[in-house]
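hi! just following up on the protien thing from before. the input was this:
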Amino acid sequence: GKLGGVRLKRITINPEKWEIDPLYHDPEIVMKIFKACEGDVYDYKLILGFLSWPFMLRRQSERTATCSKFCAAALGYREPYRFDPADLTMAVRAANHLYYQRTIILK
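and the predicted 3d structure came back as:
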């Protein structure tokens, strides 16, 4: 893309405009995965793919990048290219639910 594909960028998140879910991750693993995909081309076909949703053509390519693919890889999910933002949100929330359930049981 114009800005060089996958890149590191610090942003300020406004909680009034974003849904924020806690994550339990290893920052070193996140950086290792970032370095492996830095500069990869964005999957613009998927990003603009809201037009293809009625036809169920919304799955990512293994060779291109999106934020959800990067996050799924950093969290250790298998086949991260299969996650769109909605799928990843549900997976993270399910994992958090299981984490909290386990924490309560172990106390």
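The two ends are 49 Å apart (CA to CA).
The helical segments are 27-37, 44-47, 67-74, 85-106.
cheers
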